[in-house]
Amino acid sequence: MLPRHLMQTTELIHKSSLKCLFQIHPRWEENKKPSVLLNIAIDQVGFTIQSDDENYFHFKNNPTQDSTKNTKIFSHFFPNLTFVDLIMVLEFLELHKSVIFTPDELFKAYQIPFHQRYRSLATEILALENKNLLAWISEKKVKPQELIFLFNLNSRDREKILNVATNSLLSKTQTLQYMEWLTDLQLLKCDLNNSFYEKVNESKLEELKNQRFPNSFLKHPLLEKKITWGNQIQAQFVRKNDRAGFQIQTFVSSPEELAKTITQLNKSLENWTSNPNDCEALK
Amino acid sequence: MKDVILDKIFIEKNSLKSKLAQRMIQIFPKEKVEILESEYDLSHKGQLSKEQFEWSKKNLLITEFKGHFFKRCPGATQKKTITCCNYYVLNLGSQCNMNCSYCYLQSYLNTPIMKAYSNIDKAISELREMMIEFPQLPYRVGTGEVIDSLSLDHLTLFSRELIPLFKEFPNWTLEFKTKSNRVDQFLDLGPCQNVLVSWSINPPHIIQSEEHDTACFEERIDAAKKCREKGFPLSFHIDPIIWHPEWKENYSYLVDEIIKNFSPEDIKVFSLGTLRFQPEQRFMMKERFGMNSYVNNSEMFLSESGKMRYDWHLRNEMFQFVFKRFKNHNPKWNIFLCMETPETWATSVNVSPMNVPGLKDFFRPLPKIKNELSEESIGD
Ligand code: SF4
After folding, report:
1. Strand, helix or coil at B186?
2. Domains: count for chain B
3. Reduced to 3 DSSP states, what percent helix, strand and coil does chain B have, rounded to the nearest 5?
4. In whole angstroms, what separates CA B298 from the centre of its chain?
5. Residue A37: its pLDDT value, please?
6. pTM of the predicted structure, to 2 decimals
7. Sign of the CA dihedral B348, B349, B351, B352?
8. Which residues are CB-neighbours of A16 under 8 A, at least 6 positions away?
9. B181 contacts B222 by C-beta, under 8 angstroms
10. Could you report the per-residue pLDDT of A65-101, keeping only the tens digit for each?
11. Residue B222 lies in a domain
């Protein structure tokens, strides 16, 4: 619930008297809508929030002095706005010459730094009129800082890469990684097959990674060591952060089996240490 | 090395009478100097854009510093994951007029202008207070954390204020860390066994491709020789070691040149570090230096400390390569790995810093300084 001290100048106003109405973004799914409000109206000196029970809270504040308070109230009612939504709010305010929030403070309330570049990116995204892209940004809570790599491209290439997000079956982190590698490869002027811009999944990610770092993972020095693990041990080559190594798994049901496994592990160790380390292939 | 190019020097009114401001007024033509009636607007928040960052390298603000000058090295605050030397920093300004592709200031700074502090007398009195309290302890103080120690020193002459102070307290060590060759302005104050002049150094090929506007390899070596001749101990930081196809040949050349020009007795300490940066810094690096820069070309991974680093095996190989080349020549070379994880220490060189003769003191815990104690009590 909104803290009481923030609700000091509450008046009941009828909907018809609202100067202008900012409709909640229509793409919000029903269950994600903020519970208390239906509409918010913003005018030059305050804003009005229409609640479920047909009452209206009208916050009439000294616009410049109360910018911080206004953003608190606003973000309380609209906790899930994306940077694109916030740019829409700003544009709306500018259109109505309203100064109830400063851009910096509004963005700060959503832990997003305000930057003119983010604004131009959001404007560009809005102009694409790509509902799936907007939904991805909203659902994955994508921040503009996470898309900074796109600034190195021209707007046509940027659009091409943004579209990838709408065809991705990957997690947010993987999708962003994919988009960043695509950007790098474009900047490196690599000839990329069109399929890299279509349906994106785990295997595409792997493929793209091999294009971006052709001498990397597959030629890791550990893989060049011919270590034999024996039948009892399953060894898988995995990466954990900046370290790559073997994840080994075994199953034993008797002391004899355990002894056998230990003997095998000792052999593997000998095998490993007898090969000199060589990282030449790494990039 | 190229001359310092400054488009404008802004001097705040309350700094106008300082020695620093007066020197700037003398050195630079009138049209480049602007006196500000009120404080410069530093209210900018968040990361700087490429354009703002580049502007900040060419515009200098002379201002008073209002906080604590003397602080612990940031590596020391990550004790769990990072092996860091007992190092304190004295910041006499921020931003740098040189331009390295990997520079951490790109993700660290959010001030839109280069700064030089006019109230160095306050820094000196802060230091003196600590020195009087613990004259016998081996504190190491560096001035090159957020600004190069010497690249502007021929203009600021801060070294000439600091060296006499450290001469009074021989157990304390002052370290100037630089990629410039600007040493002439303090050489007459030598000899001085506790003022370490140190160079961050890389092979000529890396200097040329990644360390723009810095002194070239030979200039750094020559400047180091000048300091040795005047009785200043030296140190080298081969940091960041940068992967590139010919890294082995190029780092061999670097080690061999050092061995040719210096002896282990000349160089108090060597530190090694491989390329590392905050994840978000890669965006600025790509934007400013393009994809052909080696720092943008290599595959980097997020490490436990939260920084992007090369694969652990590759780091180890690079450390071992440089380390062994020195040690094979003479086991007396004193080498440590700065800002590295304890595991890397153990694997690369098979020793802990506490067991390396000559390095013990760098890692021995020392009493906390005043502002650390007050921060702790606030936390309690
Ligand atoms: S010399 Fe140091 S501070 Fe200056 S740009 Fe290079 S890395 Fe950054």
Report:
1. coil
2. 1
3. 40, 20, 40
4. 24
5. 43
6. 0.83
7. negative
8. none
9. yes
10. 567 777 777 777 677 788 988 888 888 777 766 667 7
11. yes
Sign of the Cα pseudo-torsion (A152, A158, A163, A164, in order): negative
Distance (Å) from CA B97 to ligand 1 centroid: 8
Peptide bond into A276 cis (omega under 30): no
pLDDT digits (tens, 9 = 90+) for A18-48: 333 344 444 445 554 444 444 555 555 556 5
Judging contacts by C-beta atoms under 8 Å, the chain B residues touching residue A145 are 47, 280
Q: Would you state the structure tokens that stand for residue B311, as one six-digit string?
A: 């694969």
| CATH number of the domain bearing residue B153 | 3.80.30.30
Ligand 1 mutation pick, B176, B199, B214, max ligand atoms within 8 A of CB: B214
What is the domain range of residue B160? 66-92+119-379
Contact B299 A282 (CB under 8 A): yes
In this predicted model, which residue has the larger pLDDT, B361 or B6? Answer: B6
Q: Do B287 and A239 touch (CB under 8 A)?
A: no
- Token couple for B201: 């150094």
In this structure, is residue B183 part of a structural domain? Answer: yes
Find the angle CA(B324)-CA(B328)-CA(B332) to the nearest 5 degrees.
95
Report the atom number in ligand 1 closest to the C-alpha of B211: 6
Q: Write down the residue that tokens 């750094």 correspond to.
A: B220
Residue B44 banded pLDDT, cuts 50, 70, 90: confident
Which residues are CB-neighbours of A146 under 8 A, at least 6 positions away? A176
> Which residue type occupies A42?
I
Residues in chain B: 380
Q: What is the predicted pLDDT for the residue at A87? A: 87
Task: For helices B312-329 and B342-349, give the axis angle rounded to 10 degrees.
Answer: 50
pLDDT of residue B376: 40
Chain B interface disruption, residue of A110, A176, A279, most B CBs within 10 A: A279
φ, ψ for residue B294 (rounded to 5)?
A: -60, -30
Q: Which of B92, B96, B178, B207 to probe ligand 1 with, by most ligand atoms within 8 A of CB?
A: B96
In a domain, B70, yes or no: yes
At B297, which amino acid appears? N
Q: Exposure pattern of B108-145 as b/e (b: 16+ CB <10 Å)?
A: bbebbbbbbbbbbeebbebbeebbeeeeebebbbbbbb
Cβ–ligand 1 contact at B96 (below 6 Å)? yes
| Gyration radius (Cα) of chain B, Å | 20
